[in-house]
Specification:
The chain has 290 residues and is of the alpha/beta class. The longest helix is centred in the first third of the chain and has 14 residues. 34% of the residues are buried. The radius of gyration is 20 Å and the shape is globular. The protein has 7 helices and 11 strands. Strands 3-2-1-4-5-11-10 form a 7-stranded mixed sheet, sandwiched between helices. Helix 6 links the parallel strand 4 and strand 5. Bound molecules: S-adenosylmethionine. The site of S-adenosylmethionine (SAM) has 21 residues, from helix 4. S-adenosylmethionine binds next to helix 4.
Length: 290
């Protein structure tokens, strides 16, 4: 019964129905059900990376990242000269990608959420972890590769997307590359549902785009969490994510100074690879910083 009513509560949240018409007993649940606002950078409100961060290992298994990270390494091998040795990951989250990549690169991992960083530290204690906003981060050093995986989806405006591209440029050594892996671009977007989870967590994920004319789509998660006593509660977490056409991606990458290409892949996803030129736009050779 509690499960069914919790689900009802979730759907009330989706429909924007106020809690005030809920039966009294429902108010004893924590205030889990809310609609996050569609602000330009609403990631601070994403429960998964903050109050639920400790559940990340049950939400997302490093095994699910093995195939994709192997593909990214093949792409990097093909598009870089001498094998790259150092990698900066922007928005590294729980460190699932790093778990597979750290055998091949000396990795520095950056994320805004201290709680996600702490999950990642447990998995990747040998990697450097830094708290920072990937739109404004300036470490004052450069890397062979800057890698931005699904964190880029949280950039919902062109200025935010461009700011991360600028960060990537600033941290690429001359001749180095930046690899961006958005979940979708406008041309590849597909609405749908998925589910997953392990241990005491299960989730339903519902991807949809209420307005195909704007630059965002929505991912709603209904997350069921079971406590030690076996009781389940449901949390609704809404992620507003960015959706930009391929041509806009390429244009913004070029605007920040990267020589950009789109790498299409039917099995994995579109990738954008940008190389920082060895020459500055006025022709002077750039000094390799590190
Ligand atoms: C889906 S998770 C990344 C998961 C990661 N790919 C992994 O392997 O575990 C997205 C991450 O992006 C981070 N993020 C979103 N916006 C950010 C920003 N402006 N600066 C830094 N991190 C950000 C979130 O805190 C979250 O940890």
């Amino acid at each position: 019964m509690a499960f069914v009513e919790s689900l009802e509560l979730f759907w009330r949240g989706c429909m924007g129905i106020e809690r005030s018409d809920s039966p009294a007993w429902l108010s004893s649940w924590p205030s889990d059900v809310s609609l996050s606002s569609r602000s330009s950078h609403a990631v601070q409100a994403v429960k998964l990376y903050h109050e639920l961060a400790e559940w990340w290992p049950e939400f997302s298994d490093p095994k699910e990242y093995r195939r994709d990270t192997a593909h990214f390494r093949r792409v990097l091998r093909k598009w870089t000269g001498p094998a790259p040795l150092t990698m900066l990951e922007l928005g590294s989250g729980g460190g699932n990608s790093a778990f597979h990549l750290k055998a091949h690169f000396a990795m520095t991992l950056v994320d805004l959420s201290p709680r996600m960083l702490s999950v990642s530290r447990k998995l990747n204690s040998e990697c450097e972890h830094i708290k920072g906003d990937i739109r404004t981060l300036r470490l004052g050093r450069t890397f062979d590769v800057v890698f931005v995986h699904d964190a880029i989806c949280h950039m919902t405006t062109e200025p935010d997307l461009r700011a991360v591209m600028q960060t990537a440029y600033e941290h690429c050594r001359p001749g180095g590359v930046a690899l961006f892996v958005p979940d979708y671009v406008r041309e590849t977007f597909v609405a749908g549902t998925d589910h997953g989870g392990a241990g005491r967590l299960r989730f339903l994920q519902w991807v949809f785009d209420p307005d195909p004319t704007d630059n965002t789509y929505l991912v709603d998660f209904a997350i069921l969490l079971r406590n030690q006593e076996g009781e389940a509660r449901v949390v609704h977490d809404r992620h507003v994510q960015g959706l930009f056409p391929r041509a806009r991606w390429l244009q913004l990458l070029r605007e920040v100074g990267l020589k950009a290409v789109l790498i299409k892949d039917d099995e994995v996803r579109d990738l954008f690879l940008g190389r920082r030129p060895l020459q500055t736009p006025n022709g002077a050779k750039q000094k390799k910083i590190s």
